Every structure is written in structure tokens, then in C-alpha cells.
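Fold this sequence, please.
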Amino acid sequence: MSVRLTADRDTGVAVVTLDRPERLNAIDLDMARRLAEVWRALRFDDTVRAVVLTGAGRRAFCTGIDRDAVVPQPSSPYMLDDPLLTVGPKANDLWKPVVAAVEGMACGGAFYLLGECEFLVAGADAVFFDPHTTYGMVSAYESVLMSGRMPYGEAARMMLMGTAERVSARRAHDTGLVSELTDAGGALDAALTCATVIAGHPPTAVQGTVRALWAAKEATRAAAYAQAPHLVTLGNLAPDRQTDLFTTRRPNDFRVR
């Protein structure tokens, strides 16, 4: 199964694991559907009071949408189907706190998930980047979410540099994207420690606080999301040009900042 759900009834903490390590936990259509199902199911499980989201293996938390995924699109430029819009907890009306534990790469569509977590814990080898602009694609929803988690200049630099630069875990921590930095491989344990503390508090108070925190930025996000599909439609290069870029760009031509 592409998503694993485990729960500790004693602590009240559930762990949601993206489980496609052979594909760097890229999100295919099955995983997208499964994530939505898991988040919605957790709304009804009162024994779960906090959640940790992580990826299987050490190479990647998630590398966005699987490039082999086929997403049929309507011919109208006013209707854009994006399967990642429903992969996050907030998109599925889950107001229990979610802590992300990041090891390895987190890029592109991974930000749909990270942008809807309360905070991030990262291992020292984690790196963050967004490949969209390199391949002639608009980073819209990802940019909206990350601009709400980082200083504008840092978010803009990460999105505009594309594959030329990766933001290190240390830099992500210094700029506020990551709230806690651990040794490599230690992110999950640290996230579980935080989630266990939170799960020990009265759940209605915790969930109300989560809702209040999200409300503080929800109006801005909603307005930006309304423009996002049109920016994607207008700004993405023709498919043949994207193919040229994929085949000519050297995938390892980057620096870590």
C-alpha cells in the first residue's frame, strides 16, 4: 500500500508514512486518493489526537507528483485538474495537529503536504527545492504555501532557482521553515516526541488552536489559490519544450545552500 497508517493508542499519536521509497515517495494517483482517505478517516478517530507525517526510507520525504502519473485535463483553460490539491490534511478538513518529519529530499509537490503541517522537523541531510521553473512550469500552489512558511525572499529564491540550488536543512532551520534540526535519521523520533506532548493536552483546545493558526493566513491563501490555476495555464511551456528541457538539463547540476 502506498500510504501506511499506524497508531499508538497509549500516546494518541498516529504516523502517516508515504511508502513508495523505490520512487522517492513520489505521489501517484493511488497515493493521492489514499492520503485523502487517511486524513478523512482520522477525523473520526477520537483515539488519535496528533499525527506525524513522514516518508519511508532516508533518500526522500517526497519528490512531488510521480512523472509517470497520467492526469487527464479538460480542454478549457478555465478548468485545471490537480490531484495534489486534496492530499493535505487541511484540504480534507482535519484539524488535528500534524508534524512533518523530513529526511532526504523534499521538493515540488511535497510542499502541498508540508504547507499543511503545523511545523517541520528535519534530519541534517534533508534538502528542499522546487524544480518547476527549470522545466518551464509555473510553481503556483507550492509557492503560495511556502511563502506562508518562509520569509518572502527565501521562498522566492527557492522557487525561482529551480534545480540549480537546494536549501539545506540548516538553512531551512535558520529561515524558519524547519522548527527543529536533528542528526540525520533522527527526525521521526523528534517529531514523535513533539506529537506525544501535544496529544497529551485537551484535544478541543489543541484543535481550536490549530484552526485559529490556519485562519490567520487562510484568507490570503484562498485568494492566491483562486489565481493559481490561471497562472499555471498561462505560464507553462508547451509540452514539446518541456521535454527538451528535461533531456538537456543536467540533473546533478546544483549547489546546496
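The radius of gyration is 18 Å. The longest strand covers residues 3-8.
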